[in-house]
Write a structure and sequence with these properties.
Elements lengths: L8 H25 L1
Organism: mine drainage metagenome
Protein name: Anthranilate synthase component I
Amino acid sequence: GGVVYDSDPAAEWEETMNKGRALFRAVAQAAQGL
């Protein structure tokens, strides 16, 4: 979701970190496959 006027900063941060962890896992798995 996007940051809007009534966004909860903590919830937005958690969402960002969750997406970052998923991306990091995908990159790590791809690197192991090479």
